[in-house]
Amino acid sequence: MSTTAVLRTARGRNIIAGAGALTTALTLGATLMAAAPAQADPPRTPYGTVTSPTGLIQRQYPSTDSSVRGSLRYREQVGLRCKVRAQNIDGNTIWYLLRDSNTWISARYVDNHGYVNYCKDVQRSSPELLNSVPKGAKG
Predict the structure, then answer these.
(1) Structure confidence by residue, pLDDT tens digits, 97-134
(2) Which residue, 46, 60, 56, is CA-closest to 128?
(3) Which of 3, 18, 59, 124 is deepest in the core (most CB within 10 A)?
(4) How far apart are CA 132 and CA 118, in angstroms?
């Protein structure tokens, strides 16, 4: 058998072995993907992820003196409607108005994803938004 014939035969075996390994990898990958628990998609942007291990309090207005309206868990993701400058929390004066609940959270404990407009730049067509932004709020 010539050297060329041996190389062709060896190359053919390698290609077949490679194809078999690829098929096995694809089958295993598809099986693992099907077995993986479904994770919720993040909200549409902008959204925030809670960074405080103890969670985060939702407030009626952007101040710790305001009444508590709920809480968020560590790593929970929430939609952000807009932001204002208000009470300083550990060097951060930004507060976010949540998109779905008309409550406020301190930006100090949130990683935001996407650009968040100031509330004065957001169209204020709904009375709920007008009532949720305190008079005199900077932003």
Answers:
(1) 999 999 999 999 999 999 999 998 765 544 555 555 55
(2) 60
(3) 59
(4) 13
